[in-house]
Amino acid sequence: SDHGMTEIRRLLDIQGIVRSSNYELGRDYVAFYDSTMARFWFRNATVGKRMMEILGRISLGKVLTIRDYDNYKLRSIDKDKFGDLIFLANQGVYIYPNYFHCSIPSYFKGMHGYDPNHHTENGIVLYLGTRPFKRRANLSVVDLLPIILEIIGLGVSTRNCVKFHLLKTCSKYI
What we know:
Helix content is 26%, strand content 17%. By secondary structure, the chain is an alpha+beta fold. The protein is elongated, with a radius of gyration of 20 Å.
């Protein structure tokens, strides 16, 4: 899998909190509510500053800081595309309502998309085969292509990596 799963323990109605600010969706701000994060675009700096204060008081998550952007390698993201402000829910907190699920089925037990550095977000690779395979730990998703090429006998080469448009990723294995 490319991600792990975290048990859902709490719900957070961030839309209700934001609505209580008396700012109007569409006029003062635009928001997109995911299951584990909320992204906001502001029409002016005053609204953005006030919303940052409101969201900053929520103990079930946090407003991403410059340090978080650096830590998550997001410093260069396009704010027009991804938001002026990103609120990330704590592990196990499910933002509801959101724009993905109209209702929460009783079988919703887990979610992914939280802090990528948390151990519950780690994916897993299981290999059952006859080819020898060197065990590795703490891999990134981009490390999988060279491993798959190795397992199927193509090997990690410039030709294979160019074919799959991942020369930069594969170069550390060549």
